[in-house]
Amino acid sequence: GRPTLAVVGATGAVGAVMLQILSQRADVWGEIRLIASPRSAGRKLSVRGEEVEVAALDEAAFDGVDVAMFDVPDDVSARWAPVAAAKGVVVVDNSAAFRMDPDVPLVVPEVNAHTVRNRPRGIVANPNCTTLSMIVALGALHAEYGLRELVVSSYQAVSGSGRAGIDTLREQLSLVAGTELGTGPGDVRRAVGDRTGPFPEPVALNVVPWAGSLREDGWSSEEMTVRDESRKILGLPQLPVAVTCVRVPVVTTHSMTVHARFQGEVTVDGAQEILATAPGVVLFDNPAAGEFPTPADAVGTDPTWVGRVRRTLDDPTALELFVCGDNLRKGAALNTAQIAELVAEELA
Ligand code: 2RA
User: Fold this and answer.
1) Which CATH superfamily is domain 131-162+199-327 in?
2) What is the ipTM of this complex?
3) Active site residue 259
């Protein structure tokens, strides 16, 4: 029969998008079981047009499950993914708990699908949403040109911090709407007060050069994550990578500026052709017609949108790009669903 799927964390921001995606994609699943914290158990959620009652996360919830997707905090994954794996469940985990484990593949189906089969722990990791917003486009360019260095800046949406991030931006916007705030130092901060939610500073009418927690020498955990994961996914463990992560007042869809240097000379026409034909990428690049991607247009869609393709003025081996990717879809739920489908194909 068809494999049984469990969605762990079905009630979160990513979980909600996952249920939509499972309802939209070609259906490869038998039973779909929904699992969440005991606090959410008993709620009914709709998937594939049916109401399904949410079960509480415990060992018995994994009985008879073939594949489990985890969209839960790191500590919950760290505890429960091995429990499910020990019962023979293939876990596709979207937390940071296992991404850099050498015995756990970090999979982006368009870039390194073959690595999914090598999973000695029974766990496959889904990359961070910031890495995922650029890596499909970069993987396509790397396959053709050979990547040598990466310098990127992110413009990250608040839903990267889950429902708390979305609620925080909405509340802050309601506090500043229709005012003249944003004209004097600190006026937005005073209006927002301590309602900064998961962010260190107000994000409404602002940009905040910080995501994650403090690591060595002033780097943020998010910046280190993008560097480490890009190296692992592309199979380039020594790749020089410099990242600056910034939070912006966008609900959903991360954007990034990318400076990518390659082995030899590149051309804009060549790069555009690679991007226009790469699976999972849409090239939207005609500034003369006002065409470039923005998060407001990319949100709710599956592909990585790429525009502003330019050759670096002072280096014929490098390109500048602007990319947008929905951080809840390709950045999380969609990529997880694609990985789970690869596993389902194997099990068939
Ligand atoms: C963020 N990538 O955007 C991080 C975690 N989801 O906040």
Assistant:
1) Dihydrodipicolinate Reductase; domain 2 (3.30.360.10)
2) 0.94
3) no
